[in-house]
Specification:
heterodimer; A: about 425 residues; alpha/beta; Alpha-Beta Plaits; four-stranded parallel beta sheet; three-stranded parallel beta sheet; 15 helices; 11 strands; about 10% strand; B: about 140 residues; alpha+beta; Heat Shock Protein 90
Chain lengths: ~425, ~140
């Protein structure tokens, strides 16, 4: 059942110029330039979206479902990620946005922020349990979970073993709609409105190998303008009985939201995949047992910085802050205490994916590493990327893996050409 | 028989660079397909020894040899040496100054942590000459 290596992040070959921006920034060295075009090594990609952000030609994109998909379902449920609320500015309140989703064609809106509050409750319980490895590392960001799977196998046990707010929202929304209106579950389509590519991958190819409850993923980018158009025509909104989340759930969109919601222990919020790498490195080496919880999000400023968002993350953060302050003033919104949080504990295991391994046979792996050492020695340590690999050592690895050759290095090529030129010169003179 | 050799220098009093050697060794071991558990033990042992060289030894060198059955690490410094090795091996014993402790290091767990995580630990030390911490971790037991 596993759709191995499906990825949301893909390349638009026509736009790719074959430059070195993406290969140099990829945290898992998953991109090479081959014959003038970038190629993503699928088993290494964690869908963090860094390449989408750094590509000056917009040749990297995240595949999501199209807005027309809404026609395929008779009962449509929208799950807006809290980051959606940061996109529109102070004139467009959360109530307006939720109403606009209904006017767009959704029959029901279940805020992912509501599920985030349940995950917060579950996390607090989890943090109190005895047999957990600290620091607990948040598992809400699927890019971070995948990163840990391939780079930090020792930290898999530190992951918070609780479903992500998106999955919890999907499961609960189906339940709620069924109970309220008696709609059969198979008639429902659950649409996640996503700021990020990694969520798309986690729905289409879940790492736990359990089918996601989300049916369709729409990007914030795609739905932004239609929603804005609708809101401009909204006029005064009536007080509809929305079941909206409290400030806690909405705050999850931003860095510090998840860790700030848990009330106990020393918690840190780390964002940006390279910062996440640094902190995980420290956990492996120093243990960091004086930290209880690490919120780790791949995008700068958290989900507000997701590659499928529209607004600048810092402006979006301010927008969200305004909304949060408004909610806090409104006494009607209270955090619901959910008792049966245990049902959201992971039922399957996230496993180590040793994709950096050179060979299954240790002896052969050693030989290969020795060859890599020797080849690297002969290269120029410039890490220029002109060969299409992110560093000289990466090129050496590619050569040993049989997917590149030494003369891909332009300096090596120049050496060879000089030798040949000299030989020709000799023949000429003899 | 293939042996992978690495040499690193450990700069004195620089906590930002400390740990780079053990981090790079961790990557090598993962590439070789060594089990995560062994990688972890090696990584912790080497990091602690590296940090010791930074704090107490005025910096030093790390020499690493990897073959198909084990990794051998030698962290050497030309620092003051360890006066009472048995005492230094005890958990909680530390001669680190307060400034170091304030940074979260120097809890006196270093040597005992190295011992716990290595299969063979052999320490050579001489007052005013320096210290050599020899660590071996086997890949399968």
């Amino acid at each position: 059942m596993e759709q191995e290596y499906f990825h949301s992040v893909t390349l638009n070959t026509a736009k790719c110029k074959g430059c070195t921006n993406c290969i140099k920034h990829c945290p898992t060295e998953a991109i090479r330039v081959r014959s003038g075009k970038a190629v993503i090594i699928k088993e290494r990609c964690i869908d963090c979206g860094v390449c989408i952000r750094v590509c000056p030609y917009h040749a990297k994109k995240a595949v999501t479902d199209s807005l027309d998909t809404i026609e395929n379902y008779s009962y449509k449920i929208a799950l807006p990620a809290p980051s959606l609320y940061g996109q529109f500015g102070p004139n467009y309140s959360r109530e307006r946005i939720v109403l606009a989703l209904k006017q767009f064609g959704f029959d029901y809106v279940f805020e992912v922020a509501r599920a985030a509050e349940i995950v917060t409750n579950a996390s607090e319980n989890y943090m109190k349990s005895k047999n957990i490895k600290k620091p607990v590392i948040s598992s809400a960001c699927p890019a971070v979970v995948r990163f840990i799977q391939i780079r930090f196998p020792n930290l898999i046990d530190n992951l918070l073993k609780i479903e992500s707010p998106m999955e919890v929202a999907a499961a609960l929304s189906k339940q709620e709609v069924h109970e309220k209106f008696g709609i059969p579950i198979e008639k429902m389509g659950v649409f996640f409105i996503s700021p990020c590519a990694a969520k798309v991958t986690s729905i289409k190819a879940p790492y736990e190998n359990i089918k996601s409850n989300v049916d369709v993923v729409l990007s914030i980018k795609d739905i932004y303008l239609p929603l804005l158009d609708i809101m401009k025509k909204q006029g005064e909104i009536t007080k509809e009985p929305f079941s909206l989340s409290s400030a806690i759930g909405v705050a999850w969109a931003s860095s510090g939201g998840e860790s700030g919601a848990i009330k106990e222990g020393r918690r840190i919020a780390v964002h940006g995949i390279h910062n996440v790498n640094d902190i995980l490195e420290q956990v492996v080496q120093r243990g960091l047992d004086n930290i209880d919880f690490i919120e780790a999000l791949a995008c700068p400023e958290g989900c507000l910085g997701g590659p499928l968002t529209v607004e600048n993350p810092f402006i979006a953060k301010e927008n969200l802050k305004t909304e949060i302050e408004k909610i806090r003033k409104d006494q009607a919104h209270k955090v619901p205490r959910t008792e049966n949080v245990d049902e959201f504990v992971w039922k399957s295991k996230v496993e180590y994916r040793p994709i950096m391994k050179l060979d299954d046979d240790m002896m052969k792996a050693l030989e290969k590493m020795q060859m890599i050492d020797e080849i690297t020695e002969g290269l120029y340590d410039l890490d220029c990327g002109a060969c299409g690999a992110p560093s000289c050592r990466a090129l050496a690895e590619d050569i040993v893996r049989g997917i590149a050759k030494e003369t891909d290095c332009i300096f090596k090529l120049r050496e060879k050409v000089n030798i040949i030129a000299n030989q020709l010169h000799q023949i000429d003179r003899s | 028989m293939s042996t992978i050799v690495r040499d690193y220098s450990i700069p004195a009093n620089d906590f930002t660079i400390a740990g780079e050697a053990s981090s790079s060794v961790r990557k090598l071991l993962s590439q070789l397909g060594v089990s995560p558990d062994v990688v972890k033990r090696t990584s912790i042992a080497m990091y602690e020894a590296e940090i010791n060289a930074v704090i107490h030894g005025n910096g030093g060198k790390a020499h690493v040899e990897i073959d198909e059955s084990k990794i051998y690490i030698c962290i050497s410094d030309e620092g003051p040496g360890i006066a009472d090795l048995d005492l230094a091996m005890q958990e909680g014993y530390s001669t680190a100054p307060d400034s170091i402790r304030e940074m979260g290091f120097g809890a006196g767990m270093g040597l005992s942590n190295i011992k716990k995580n290595s299969d063979i630990l052999y320490i050579e030390t001489e007052i005013n000459k320096g210290t050599k911490v020899n660590i071996t971790v086997f890949f399968s037991k």
